Amino acid sequence: MNILAISGSPRPARNTAGLMKLIVESAKAHVSNVDAMWCNLNDMTYSGCQSCLACKEPTARSCVRKDALAFVLDVMVASQAWVIGTPVYMGHVSGQLKLLLDRMYGFIGPNWENRLPAGKRVVVAITQGAGEECHRDLAEELAELLGRRGLETRVIRACNMRVDVPVPEFSQAVKEEAAALGKWLAGAL
Question: What is the 3-state secondary structure of 12-28?
């Protein structure tokens, strides 16, 4: 597995997935034999962190809960790069993605060591209906959160997105940024 694309959007073929696709396709254009696995969190049945702390046992590798998210967490460890997408809901990530972020607590060992292999790159794709001035702090927060896990992280934001059109409409600047991030992501493969 080279790239794991995780969508936190309940709308599988709209703005968030469209932005993620631009990034993944760019990575594929720069590296031959790229394998991309797509995961739509909204199609899965899972729960958030239960604060059981079983993940802090020395023998644990990540969250020990056995639900649909367990496979995704395993693939996160195995893949070299991630594209994580979310729309902005109520000023933050979607609920679907928030549950995954909470479960990533298992990637921290009992002595606060990082359990993720070094060298992973992540692009976080954020879409929102609001203008450029809204939720810039969310992008910074996500980059910092993932950076603390040792992940080299970049964030792309597509603002002023319309939800009343059947196909996402991205500005030329967003398309160019997505292409550059795909190329950057390909550097980890």
Answer: CCCHHHHHHHHHHHHHH
